[in-house]
Structures are given as structure tokens and as C-alpha cells.
Amino acid sequence: MKKFLKQFALGLLVFIILNTIIAIIYEYPTYKSVKNKTNRNYLKWEAIHNNKNTFDLILIGTSRCYASFNPMIIDSVLNTNSYNMATSAQDIAETYYSLQEIFEYQNPKYIVLDMFFEASDESYDYYQTFSNSSFFNAKKRQLNLIYEGYGNTGILNYSIPVVKFKNYLKQDIAGILSKNKSLRKEDIWIKGYLYDPTIVSDAQISNFEPIANFETSSFSRDRFNTYFNKIQTLVNTNNAKLICVRTAYPPTRLELTDSDDEATFFDSYLAEKQVPFFDLNTYKGDQYLYNDKDFADYHHLNYKGAKKASMQLVEALKQTKNN
Amino acid sequence: MLFNSLDFFLFLPIVFILYWFVFNKNLKHQNFLIVIASYVFYGWWDWRFLSLIIFSSFIDYGIGVLLSKENKQVKRKLLLWTSICVNIGFLGFFKYYNFFVESFIASFSFFGSEISPNTLNIILPVGISFYTFQTLSYTIDVYKKRLKPTQNIIAFFAFVSFFPQLVAGPIERATHLLPQFYSKRQFDYANAVNGMRQVIWGLFKKVVVADNCAKYANIIFNNSDDYSGSTLLLGAFLFAFQIYGDFSGYSDIAIGVSRFFGFNLKQNFAFPYFSRDIAEFWRRWHISLSTWFRDYIYIPLGGSRGSLNKKIRNVFIIFLVSGFWHGANWTFIIWGGLNALYFLPLLLTNKNRVNTNIVAENKVLPSFKEILQMTNTFFITLLAWVFFRADSVTHAIEYLQSIFTVSLFSKPAIIPFTVLFLVIVFIIIEWLGRHGEYALERVDKINKPLRWSIYMVLIMLMFLFTGEEQAFIYFQF
């Protein structure tokens, strides 16, 4: 028995060492960027924490949201002070806890929430989630997100680096095997919005696939419903107005899509909840016509597309105000 | 509780410590701990259904005791049938009630008369098919005097509910497992290390192979109308590895965990996809169930002896019952029937026991003939799996029809390179390890640094590819 336990302990030690190495490799860039004040999530939360009650419009959602809405454009027309608090691969539970943190420091009149099936599906990028929430000032909120948001899996992902960084490890392993090494460009951030000059290539367009539907995504209606209700209550309690949008997809992808479940579902769900919803793929389509070259890839707008999306949002906000 | 869950990773060390460090002085206490731990393990899913296991255990224990005192054949038979009726009655009610009602209604409506359905919203208790067969084996063996009835109620309850194999097998025979509860278990280092290795391999099969194949197999099967023949064939291929990785992975974990506690369970899978004919496949796939049917149904019916008609009848009975055991759906029955059709020519030409050894024994690579034989067996198995996986018979037929079209020669719409790479690595490891009871069994022959590196790579891959906890497919059976 002693020998077995010794061997087991040794195995555990090797596992811990390997995980420590992975943690150092992957956490170090974050640590360095925080130290150099270049980490995008850190800077976003710094803006929220250090400028109390300054922003009256908060945009929140996934990377699709931070690539779509430029607060400078919105503010120049509406004379507001807005901030884009969307983060990469943001899950709906993360949105809820982020809003809790935001409301503790800000008193916005409007919350614009980007709707996306993948934000409420059953696959999570825990690293992004935990990286974002690590900048919450309220540590209890961070723990609530881990445990209440994701249960045991959340704890497992939070505490074991190989699981937490699995997406990045897989990418890096694939990168070692692949000949195409992409050079990372310097990102430009404007009040939380990513100014992206990339234009999708024709080769990428030819590989476009239909938009995810109920069958091809693991969208969880229950999970979405639970957190949406919480978000709606939180926003109402803080006397703000919730506005939902679905940011644009490349027209080629829309053409390939037989049944746009995402649009249909959000449209009927939000109508029932009496929350204004604007699908930017169609909203004022005659004025704001997208083409594939308005995108940086298969679902992120580039700087050209973001101009259109920001102006669409301005129109939507005006319409909501008038109603 | 799932083997691939955090709950189980906390539960197992607690039970292990209590078993070897607290209750190790007394065999009865150790067995009692196994009963309690097994009930906690099962009750984690739904404690209400524990009553079924407890009731079944009481009935079969009592019948065993009565059989030991009874010499009159009529009364002995009555006792045996009481046990069969109670056990099969539970199974029939929970698993097959709605199926029979619906089939009854469907057959009436076929003849033009409509009757209103009266189906019930019944939850299928996890593992009922497994523990029912295990307890039945005890009563039948006691009745046939192949086994002395036990007077040790705790040992019997532990035998019925033994947590590593309670919910998805292997289905152990009382003659093999029950005596292990009578004798004091000694901690055996080599056995425990072997168990650990088998658990690692089982988890790898489940988490890395099965769950990753499942992602794409589900997409393809759920949207089969939209895909080309080549994509559908790929879907069936991925499902073949999903079900193998899932079920044999569970068996490996069950056997491995049992070794930690000083128990030896029987091998349940012996590299079935390296079979050269379908008879060999059935000697290598879900061995504990196949041998159960062989010993308690096929041989009592006359087996392969007797007239041609009898032989054919017996083969069909055993395969159809096997199909029906898997689920209350015509798809499983047709799956069983198809396998009977595959098997019959071998039996009738006396070729069903040609390939009883390991393929390419003591060789690195198979011969060309063996490759063709294995490919052929795998392919026909794959076609039968379509029925196993499909939602309905119509779905399965349409799926198969869509495979055999010109689009079979087009590029698949989905090519999951990483998953296919993992499957290939998995096949290579299984091939290299096919002389052992499981693929990693003989890894102990290689030097320590390399061996440990293999373990660590497998463990890291498990964590790297872990997704949401996926239930084991065989839980539903």
C-alpha cells in the first residue's frame, strides 16, 4: 500500500508540475500586459472602476459586440458617453455578473446586449471568462460566477490550468504542426471597441458555413432563459433600459442559412419579454447594406462594417427613445 | 454518479481510504462499506430507485435461502419462476411498458381500429438491465446447483450493488464475483497499479475518443437529410468509435476501480474491431452479456445442436433478445436481427469458430487477407450501428439509402481532422496492445520514464479534450 500511495503521490506531483508550467506559460503574458497596462480586459475594468458614474450607455456581449460598436461614433451623434464592455467569448452568465459589477460603479441609462446563440451554449471558454472576471473588484462575485455560473465544471476549469487553457494549448499544438504562422498585429482599442482593419479573404468567404441553428449549436434555452431573466431584473432594478441587438453576419452566410433559428427565436422571445430587439442584419436594410468585405472573418465586423453597425444602433436608440 | 465527474473523483478516494484504513480489520465491515458506498453512488442519480435494488436483493437472497432448503423439484421451479417474474417484471414495467402499449396501438390502427393510448411517463432506472441480469444469474445458478446459496446477506447485497459495475456492467456471474466477497481482500500493489492503468485507459477512451466522436456523430445523425453519402458514412464511422470508446471505456474503468478494492471482474471487450468475422466480433463485444445469453438462453434452447430450423430459430432468438435488451425500440430489434443474419451463414457452414485466436498473433502487422477480413467485418458492423443509433427505423433506412448514392464519392461536408487523428492514434495503441486484456496492460514491460510519459500524455490529453460531462450511452440500457 505504501508503495502504491508513493507512486500515486509522485504521479500527482508530476501532474502538478506540468500544470504549473502551463500556468506560467499562459498566465505570464496576462501578468505582463496588466503590469504594462496593455491588457484589454484590465483596461476596460479600469475605465469602469476609476470613472464612477460616468457612462450612460454600456454595450455588452461577445467579441462580435466589441468589433461592431464604436462608442465614439455613437457618442458623436447622441451626445452620450458610452463604453463597450463586451469581452471575448463572453457567456451569458459572465454577462450577468459583469453587469452586477458595472452597476456597482456606473449608473447607465441604457444597456445594449448583443444576442448570440453561442453566448448561451454548452461550450465555454473558461480562460476568457476567468480572465475577465479576475478584474472584478468584488472577489465574492468572481467566486459566484465560477461556482453558480458553471458548477463543478467551473471549479475544475478554474483550478486546473491544462483544462483552463485547453483551447489555447490546442491552438498552439496545431500551430506547431501547421506551416502557417500568423503574425499577431497590434490591436487598436477605442473605449472598449476593437478597431479592426482586417478584411476577410475570398478564400475564407468560399469556406463560409450557414449560421448556427438549434441543431448545429448546443444553445441551451434553459440557461439562456435563466440568465436573461436575471439580467432583465438587474437592469430594471437599476432603472436602466435594456435593448437587445443581433449584430450582422456576412451576407454569404445568411444566404447559405435555410432556417435562421437565432433570429426567429430572439425575435419571438424578446417580443414576449417586451424588450426592444433590433436584428442588424435586416434593420433599416435599405440604408445599411452589408457586404462580405465589411467583415474581418466569418462573424466579426471590421472597421467599415462597424461604422454601419454603430449608425444602425444610433437609429435604434433614437427609435427606442421616441417610443 | 458518473465516472468522468468531479463527484466521483472525490467519492473514490474517500471510499478507498475508509476501505483500506478504517474498515480493513473486518471483512463484514468492508462488505458493509461497499453496500453503503454503492447505494450512495447509485442514489446520487436518484435515491428513490434504490428501493428497487434493495427489493430485488431481498427477493433473490430469500429465494436462494429457500432453494437451499427445498428438495422438491416443483417447489424449486416455483421459487425460480418467482425470482424471474419479479426481476423481469420490474424490467418489463420500467423499460418496456410504453413500447408494448404503443406497438399494440400501432398494430390495431394498422387494421383500421383506433384505440386511445394509455402510456405512462416512466423514468427508466439507471442500470436496471445490468443488475437484473446479475441477480438472475445467481438464482438460476443456485437452482441448477452450480452455486451454493449464500447465507451471508451483506456479501449478497454487496454483490448485487457493487458500485464499479452497478450501472453499466460488466454483468458479473454470481459464481465468479460472489465468492470474492467471502474471502479477506489483501491490497495487492501489482493489481492496484494495473487497475490504475486500466482506469486511465478507460477514461481516455471515454473522454478523448467517445465524447469527441459523439460531437460530430450527433450533428450528422441529427441532420442526416442535409448531408451527402460520404458525410453520412463518416457519421456512422464516428458513431462506431463513439459507442466502442464509451462502453468499453466504462468497462475498463469499472474493472480498474474494482482492482483497487481487491476484486477481479471479467474482461468485457477484447478489441472487437479487430475481428475477422462477425462470430469473432460477438466473442469480443460486450462479452459479459453475450455469454449471459449464451449460457442462460441459447444453450438451454439447444444451442447449435438439433435440426436446421432449430439452429436458425435459436440464433434469431438470441440476437433479437439481445437487441431488445438494449432498448424498447424497433431499431434495436432490427439491429439484433441484422446481426443474426450476418452470423447465420457462419454457423450453418460451421465457420463460426474459425477465428478464435488473436489476429496477427505475435506479429506486428496483419496479412492482406486479415486486413480485408477486418475491414469487411467492421463495415457490416457499421451498417448495423446505423439502426442502433437512428431515432426510428425509417430514419435508419433513409440514412442507409442516402449513404449508397453517388454522393458517397464526394468530399464530406464535415471533416473533423483532430477527431480523426485521435481515432487513428487510438486504433494504433489498441493494435499494439491487443495481446493484453486491455491496450495498456503490457506497458509495464517498457522502461519507467517512457511508461510514465505515456501515462502523463494520456492524462493531459484527457484534460485537454474534456468537455461537458457526457453520460455514458449504456446508462440508458
Can you walk me through this structure?
The complex is a heterodimer of chains A (323) and B (477). Chain A is built from 14 helices and seven strands. Chain A is globular, with a radius of gyration of 21 Å. By secondary structure, chain A is an alpha/beta fold. Chain B is mainly alpha-helical and 477 residues long. Chain B contains 17 helices and no strands. Chain B has helices spanning 6-22, 27-46, 50-69, 73-110, 128-143, 153-161, 174-177, 189-222, 229-260, 278-284, 287-298, 308-326, 330-348, 368-389, 393-403, 417-432, 448-465. In chain B, helix 3 packs parallel to helix 5, helix 4 (73-110) runs antiparallel to helix 5 and helix 8 packs antiparallel against helix 16. Chain B starts with 5 loop residues before the first helix and ends in a 12-residue tail after the last helix. Chains A and B meet through helix 1, helix 7 and helix 9 of A and helix 1, helix 8 and helix 17 of B.
First-to-last CA distance of chain B: 16 Å
Return the structural class of chain A: alpha/beta
Rounded mean pLDDT score of chain A: 89
Low-confidence runs of chain B: none
Query: How much beta of chain B, percentage-wise?
Result: under 5%
Percentage of residues in helical conformation of chain A: 40-55%
| First-residue to last-residue Cα separation of chain A | 74 Å
Share in β-strands of chain A: 5-15%
Q: Which overall shape of chain A is indicated by the principal axes computed on the Cα atoms?
A: globular
Please report the total strand number of chain B as a whole number.
0
CATH class call of the domain at 43-122 and 187-322 in chain A: Alpha Beta
Tally of DSSP β-strands of chain A: 7
Rg estimate of chain B, integer Å: 23 Å
Largest sheet geometry of chain B: none
Low-pLDDT runs of chain A: none
Number of helices of chain A: 14
Overall average pLDDT of chain B: 90
Question: What is the tally of helical segments of chain B?
Answer: 17
How many domains comprise the coordinates of chain B? Answer: 2
Largest interface: A-B, 24 and 25 residues
